[in-house]
Amino acid sequence: MSKIIAMVDGSVYSESVCDHAAWVAKGKGWPVEVLHIIGLRDETSDPRNLSGSIGFGARTALLNELAELDAQKAKLARKRGQAIVEDAAARIGAEGIEVTARLRLGDLVETLRDAEEDADLVIIGKRGEDADFATLHLGSNMERVVRASTKPILVASRAFQPVKKLLVAFDGGPSALKAVNHIARSELFSGLAIHLLTVGSETTEARRAIEGAAALLKGAGYTVTSEIAEGQPEHLIAVRAEAHDFDLLIMGAYGHSRIRSLLIGSTTTAMIRACKVPVLLFR
Amino acid sequence: MSPDFLNRMRVEWLGTIRADLLAGLVVALALIPEAIAFSIIAGVDPKVGLYASFSIAVITAIVGGRPGMISAATAATAVLMVTLVRDYGLQYLLAATVLAGVLQVIAGALKLGSVMRFVSRSVMTGFVNALAILIFLAQLPELIGVPWMTYVMVAAGLAIIYLFPYITTAIPSPLVTIVVLTAIALLFGMDLRTVGDMGELPSTLPVFLLPDIPLTWETLQIIFPYSAAVAAVGLLESLMTAQIVDDLTDTKSDRNQECIGQGVANFFTGFIGGMAGCAMIGQSMINVKSGGRGRLSCFAAGVFLLILIVVLGDIVSIIPMAALVAIMIMVSVGTFSWSSIASLRDHPRSSSMVMLATVFVTIYTHNLALGVLTGVLLSGIFFAGKIAQLFSVTSELTDNGATRTYHIHGQIFFASSDEFSAAFDFGEVLDKVIIDVTRAHIWDISSVAALDMTVLKFRREGAEVEIRGLNEASETIVDRLAEHDKPGAMDRLMGH
Prior knowledge:
The complex is a heterodimer of chains A (283) and B (496). Chain A has 283 residues and is an alpha/beta fold. Helix content of chain A is 45%, strand content 19%. Chain A has 2 domains: 4-41 and 77-156, HUPs (Rossmann fold), CATH 3.40.50; 165-282, HUPs (Rossmann fold), CATH 3.40.50. Chain A has a 10-stranded mixed beta sheet, with helices on both faces. Chain A contains 10 helices and 10 strands. Chain B is of the alpha/beta class and 496 residues long. Chain B is elongated and about 100 Å long. In chain B, strands 3, 4, 5, 6 and 7 form a 5-stranded mixed beta sheet that branches. In chain B, strands 1-2 form a two-stranded antiparallel sheet. Chain B folds into 2 domains: 3-340, no CATH class; 391-495, STAS domain (Transcription Regulator spoIIAA). Classes of the chains: A alpha/beta (283), B alpha/beta (496). Chain A binds chain B through residues 41, 43-44, 46, 48-60, 62-63, 66-67, 70, 135-136, 144, 147-148, 258-259, 262, and chain B through 1-3, 6-7, 14-19, 22-23, 26-27, 29-30, 161-162, 164-165, 168-175, 244, 247-250, 282, 285-286, 288-291, 293, 330-331, 333-335, 337-339.
């Protein structure tokens, strides 16, 4: 059973996530599951008491106070979560698509790992709610999800645009090949124009790889152009996407280990941030 | 280093940066008085405790198992080392600190953290009460035989600590206390004892040094008892504090990692001239109350403490002791479990006895490990006494009075084996005695011996003895019940 998981969090990106989900669902005929995960308690917004004094019965008083605070927050988060999934489900359902809503408690990544088992596509917003700005983890939830998920992921941009032109960042790696194969077989993109782009130096190997991919896509009935260009991948791809009005970037994700990307920065994350278009990632 | 580990580290270190830094600052103010006060109690210069607080806080923040918990030089460990310093000097204290660290790492590696489950609620309450009383008692030398102005100053300090938060909770009231009392003392030129009078304060960053002791068997014999006590008390207080922080924040800690962290911290602290320490209940509560949740808060507390002492050393030395005494009284009052006094009335008498015994033994010996040991033993005995009551014997006579069948129900172990032996009537003239233990549990060797003796006694009277259901009953005798058998072992044990 195929389905799409649309991850919503009540941020401005949620509507766009719904629209992207509706677009894919219509093209594929899959049902959509709207998922909101109420994360582990966020301690940052606690009212502060820096008095540094503890009086009679301090432990019990403190325990009650903290428990009460958490209870209030949890109730609020639940209500809010309910509203978020209901809104999202209504938005998608209005397009005549089969939709279910799900609200889960727990760590984002762990919960998604369980939820995505029977899904074919996960859709998430490029950025989350404002809380992420406070903790310096700009879009880190998106990155965590992309890293942890084993399914293709569509990272939604701020607003949905009908998709007409595809840009495929092709590095010849296994996940890029997977992406090309997927496009070739997919009815979602049928008839669209595709531009294959390899960032790197022009070698026979690279040329052969990209020509092979182009042939495969042409065979599937796409209009294909290809290009090998040198430069900074994230910069170049962002520039191409902007200059030629591509509506969707497709690429393989996270070729390198976590440690390495911690040291040199991850191309994938940088690319997703640099582009203003939605990105479809294959692992 | 898996992604999960990195992510956990990121959350634990950077999850609440601003709150942790602020809480660290507040906590540092509460660490200084304890470090100074208990260095004096232990008979060493304040710098020994202050260096220790810095290094223990920083190291446990990195390698400990409970983010948001504060560790530093503490009352609990300091009071254990008084006689060591008095008889042998500072260098032996440093060596004992290093050895205590080694012992704690071993305890952590052996996963002794799980032994904490034998420490009952009553023992824990007794522990915190005893600790609070020790902290309070340690303030008495500053309160007895001093100019009367000291009392006024301490009272003023306490008033500020407890009342200032009603004005604002944005400024730590201990800081206000220190600033105000110091200003008053200077303004009126009061002749009060100051921190500077208590001994040498650190003027530089700590340096690495080897404890200056002969590395002999004799040295080991001297320091080992102290190290063992320090290691035990340190782990007890740390694990107990971890439990409290767990409860307050509704999160989990890694207890064995915490044991190792405490050990590593003490080990290195001994080499920079610091004394042993552990987690602190009062300061950890202050930390949580101030919003500290991550590893950063303990780390920051250590660093702030060192900066305050080294950079502002001249100012710190003119702080009147009265200010620090007031802060420590606050910590003591906050640590004490006041509700335990009220619940003395409605709790079972055995739990109250356990709690009180823990407190009294600790206060008498100044050794929390002995107090806890007493409490744990007492609660074990009380528990055994209660379980021994789950025992009954019924019997019936058959075959025209020639055979008697004894049905044994319940738990047979050391505490009930006397009652077991007494349940039989050896004076009765019988041909045959059947002892049916199918519905009993034989827990230990004492009960086996009691059963053997009973059989023997009946034989001596000329009766034939048959024991029924021995296999089922003795399944419980093996150690580690959960492991010894196939699935369903527990059901069979409890069911028959």
